[in-house]
Backbone:
């Protein structure tokens, strides 16, 4: 069975749009870029900025394999924080091939 | 129409693998073949006059884990195959707190592990001060 790339395109676009639209929740959900995306939004809001920053990331490739530790514990360890003021969440997407989710923790 | 069947089935599989399986916390990177990802789930929220104040990380921190499992042999997109899946376990925060002997939860992460979407495991890892230390404090 031969599959024409022209016929694949609409299905791939629908799949990609669906993949990027509904799988993440956060207090603020920014519009999601299809081919390229690099956005940061609040995760657990707080009232003060922080002088220290801790980051932790997880990734996937082609939606086939996902790995990594983007948890709060890893981010707090990374920043050596003793208190957490607020946290953000960064989502990067490159051509639907590679995606990275980063938890950014701000504190003292 | 037949030529669209393969990519549409793949899309349905992707959606089912990433969005409707047992999941905790913020959405995580997908992995249809393999996935082992930790994501943030909750952070202690100050209320009342302390609202908006920083959340202090206790000097002595312990963790408790609760786990849920699923075996899913259903075919994504085919509703009549949905009965071919079972899920069990207790991945509640309450269980995690009891397992770790926590006084309260300061923050929690969720860990998702899936293999070929058939085996799925979701874990809640709660962090907080130990209950004994809280009782001993004046």
Residues:
């Amino acid at each position: 069975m031969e599959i024409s790339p022209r016929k694949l395109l609409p299905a791939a676009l629908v799949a990609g749009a669906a993949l990027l639209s509904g799988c993440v929740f956060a207090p603020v959900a920014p519009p999601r870029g299809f081919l390229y995306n690099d956005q940061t939004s609040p995760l657990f809001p707080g009232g003060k900025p922080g002088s220290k920053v801790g980051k932790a990331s997880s990734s996937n490739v082609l939606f086939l394999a996902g790995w990594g530790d983007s948890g709060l514990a890893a981010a707090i360890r990374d920043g050596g924080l003793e208190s957490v003021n607020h946290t953000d969440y960064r989502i990067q997407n490159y051509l639907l091939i590679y995606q990275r989710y980063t938890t950014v923790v701000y504190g003292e | 129409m037949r030529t669209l069947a393969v990519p549409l089935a793949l899309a349905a599989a992707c959606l089912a693998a990433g969005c409707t399986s047992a999941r905790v916390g913020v959405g995580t990177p997908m992995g249809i073949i393999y996935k082992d990802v930790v994501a943030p789930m909750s952070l202690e929220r100050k209320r009342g006059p302390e609202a908006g104040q920083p959340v202090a990380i206790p000097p002595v921190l312990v963790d408790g884990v609760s786990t849920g499992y699923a075996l899913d042999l259903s075919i994504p997109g085919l509703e009549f195959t949905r009965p071919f899946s079972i899920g069990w376990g207790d991945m509640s925060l309450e269980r995690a707190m009891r397992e770790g002997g926590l006084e309260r939860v300061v923050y929690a992460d969720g860990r998702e592990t899936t293999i070929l979407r058939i085996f799925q495991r979701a874990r809640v890892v709660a962090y907080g001060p130990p209950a004994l230390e809280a009782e001993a404090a004046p």
Notes: The first strand of chain A starts at residue 36 and ends at 44. Chain A touches chain B through 55 residues (CB under 8 Å). The two ends of chain A are 60 Å apart (CA to CA). Confidence is low (pLDDT under 50) at residues 20-24 of chain A.
